[in-house]
Structures are given as structure tokens and as C-alpha cells.
């Protein structure tokens, strides 16, 4: 972790080629064997061109630690509640993972490129890969290099197995970090 727990940070996601995507604040919670944990208290504003919303529930995020020396191609969030998703059989999303380029810290700013694919698990246990159509469309529109396409697809496929099998950290490990977020209030 680049800074001490409690530090406010900015998360900035772009699309391939550098166009702005989501931007939002977070609080650093700490590190464990899974990576660096971020807190998003209720009231956090999430913004992107043409859209913004205020989170109604606390949730935490994970900037995953390298595995076997390789930086993971995703950022994960763990939710306490939310709105129902039709593609999850009406369940809210418990886990939402953006497939991204490996995240990089620049001082107190976390940056990554969103690669469209999302792995989502509902509170009902349903696991889906969302935005496959957008991934295919953007491969052509943004001219993703073949190695980026392969890395994004491999990341999504591996995450489906891990999330569906409730492997760590998708096994409830985030609970301790939600407690830490609550203790900072």
C-alpha cells in the first residue's frame, strides 16, 4: 500500500486510448495477502462523462496483489446491498469485478483502463460475465492489441471460476474490511 490507512485516494478509470470513464474517491483501509483494500462509504459520488450517481450503501474494493509475480487484470468490489439486476435473476450484485489493465498507483491516484468485461456474482449465487457485446465492439472501435484481448479474456475466465467457487478472496474475506470502513466513521 502506498500510503497509510485512512488516506483519501482518487480512482480514475479510462477507456482504451485514454478517454475518461469512471472517477471516484475512496479511503485506503489496509493490505492483506489479497492486496490493497479501499473503502467506499455510502454517499460516495461516482462520475463518468454523461452519468453520475451517489452510492447508497457502504462497499469495499480490492486492488489485487500480484500473483506469481504477475499483476492481475482486474479490480473487485464487494457490496452489502444494491438494486436488482435482471441478468442475475433479480438478485443484487454482491461482487462486481471490472476487468482492467493492471492498476497503477501515481501518488494517491489509482489508475487503470477498463476493458469492458465484468464478472458479477449476485447475492443469489448466480455468476455472469457482463458486457461481452461491448468487449467485442470496443476491440474494433478502440483497436485493442491481441495481447490485451487475450489477457482480458483470460482474466474474466479465471475470475468466473474463482468467484463461482467462492475461492479467496471471494469467500467473505471482505467482511473484515467492511468492519474497518465502519470503524473509520
UniProtKB/TrEMBL annotation:
Q: Signal peptide span per the entry?
A: none
Origin, by domain of life? Answer: Bacteria
> Which segments does the entry list as coiled coil?
none
From what organism does this protein derive?
Nocardioides piscis
Entries under InterPro entries matching the protein: DUF402, FomD-like_sf
Q: SUPFAM superfamilies in the record, alphabetically?
A: FomD-like (SSF159234)
Q: Where are the transmembrane segments?
A: none
Instruction: List residues of the DUF402 domain.
Output: 30-163
- By what name is this protein known? DUF402 domain-containing protein
Amino acid at each position: 500500500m502506498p500510503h497509510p490507512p485512512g488516506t483519501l485516494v482518487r480512482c480514475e478509470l479510462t477507456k482504451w486510448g485514454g478517454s475518461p470513464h469512471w472517477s471516484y474517491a475512496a479511503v485506503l483501509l489496509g493490505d492483506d495477502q489479497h492486496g490493497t483494500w479501499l473503502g467506499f462509504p455510502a454517499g460516495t459520488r461516482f462520475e463518468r462523462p454523461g452519468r453520475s450517481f451517489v452510492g447508497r450503501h457502504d462497499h469495499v474494493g480490492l486492488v489485487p496483489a500480484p500473483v506469481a509475480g504477475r499483476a492481475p487484470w482486474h479490480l473487485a468490489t464487494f457490496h452489502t446491498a444494491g438494486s436488482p439486476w435482471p441478468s442475475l435473476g433479480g438478485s443484487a450484485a454482491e461482487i462486481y469485478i471490472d476487468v482492467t489493465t493492471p492498476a497503477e498507483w501515481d501518488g494517491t491516484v489509482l489508475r487503470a483502463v477498463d476493458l469492458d468485461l465484468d464478472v458479477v456474482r449476485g447475492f443469489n449465487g448466480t455468476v455472469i460475465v457482463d458486457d461481452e457485446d461491448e468487449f467485442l465492439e470496443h476491440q474494433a472501435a478502440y483497436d485493442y492489441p491481441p495481447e490485451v484481448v487475450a489477457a482480458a479474456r483470460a482474466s474474466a475466465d479465471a475470475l468466473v471460476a474463482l468467484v463461482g467457487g467462492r475461492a479467496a478472496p471471494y469467500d467473505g474475506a471482505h467482511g473484515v474490511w467492511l468492519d474497518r470502513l465502519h470503524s473509520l466513521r
